[in-house]
Amino acid sequence: MGMKVRVDKDTCTACELCYDRVPEVFKDVGDGIADVVQVDIEDGDEKWMNIPDNLTDEVQEVADECPSGSIIVEED
Ligand code: SF4
């Protein structure tokens, strides 16, 4: 089963960790606030990106390390 990821921009503290580490998935959308580089699934206000299989571990790591817990990873 694939995994998907989204960013809660309201709680992101612009620490730069996620897009420094995984620029294939995260980007700076202004003032250092992060979001996913591509929207594959829209669910109301939630914009999810499907995580490429080869990046799943790295995305999970930055989600664990995000200081504000703003990166949400779920099974797709
Ligand atoms: S790691 Fe978390 S706090 Fe830091 S830029 Fe990414 S989403 Fe924001």
UniProtKB/TrEMBL annotation:
UniProt cross-references to PROSITE patterns, sorted A to Z: 4FE4S_FER_2
Iron-sulfur as UniProt keyword: yes
Entries under InterPro entries matching the protein: 3Fe4S_ferredoxin, 4Fe4S_Fe-S-bd, ET_Ferredoxin
Swiss-Prot/TrEMBL keywords: 4Fe-4S, Electron transport, Iron, Iron-sulfur, Metal-binding, Transport
Keyword Iron: yes
Cofactor: [4Fe-4S] cluster
Record GO terms (molecular function): 4 iron, 4 sulfur cluster binding; electron transfer activity; iron ion binding
Domain spans labelled 4Fe-4S ferredoxin-type: 3-32
Annotated PANTHER family: FERREDOXIN (PTHR39163)
Function: Ferredoxins are iron-sulfur proteins that transfer electrons in a wide variety of metabolic reactions.
Protein's name in the database: Ferredoxin
